[in-house]
Amino acid sequence: MLNKKSQERKIFIDFDVTLLNTRLFKNAYFKEFEKFGISGKDAKEAYEVMKKIIGKDNPYFHAAYLGKRYPKVDTKRLKAALINFRKQSKNYVFKDVQTFLKYLIINKWRVELLSIGYRSAQNKKVQGSGLTKFFHKVHVVDSDNKSDHLKKILKKPDDHFVFIDDNIYLVDDVKKNFPKSTVIQIIRYSHQLKSDKVDHVVGNMNQAKHILEKI
Fold it and tell me: Cα separation of 102 and 27, whole Å?
């Protein structure tokens, strides 16, 4: 990670869907279960159940849940495999990401990652992306509310910053709580809900770059 030197312009960027092609990642991820005799369909269904129960992706919960349905599965080995898969996340980073992050660093932005997930597993996925060299700091939060975390880490609640995320509920909430911020929603997939409350909606990082050039 980069040095934590304070810089004038600060940007918080989401990870899943924003930087990582989560659709491709998940497709490959569910195939990992087949190596243990678990159908990809069952793995996906268990994933959705897990999200409803605990609200986030936790490979330990996922493996234990499936272990009840597949009692012959070595859940310890399965958990290890799921963590190891996360370490290979660089294979699923969107192609426009590194160029965008390099632009931010060259132009003296302070870049901080703000991601939601089960901390230990999500950190493995972030580290496996090969992108940590671009971040001054990485924040992985358990809560689904990123605004709460921003309130804790910003020196002044009305500080201007840029926030990039794909999730309509998160971008709307950040804009509501930090009206002076510049909030950019990125739409990577056609099924995503589009916000009408944020400052900008983009389809890729090159479009985001053009916006930042004017800030």
Answer: 28
Q: Where are the domains of the chain?
A: 9-21+93-212, 23-86
Q: In angstroms, rounded to a whole number, what is the distance separating the alpha carbons of residues 166 and 156?
A: 25
Grouping H, G, I as helix, E, B as strand and the rest as coil, residue 90 is: helix
Tokens standing for residue 69: 């349905």
Whether the pTM exceeds 0.85: the reply is yes
Domain 9-21+93-212: CATH architecture, name and number where available: 3-Layer(aba) Sandwich (3.40)
- What span, in angstroms and rounded, lies between the C-alpha atoms of 58 and 120? 9
Which pair of structure tokens corresponds to residue 61? 């919960």
- pLDDT tens digits for range 134-174: 999 999 998 889 999 999 999 776 678 999 999 999 999 99
No. of helices (H) and no. of strands (E), the chain: 9, 6
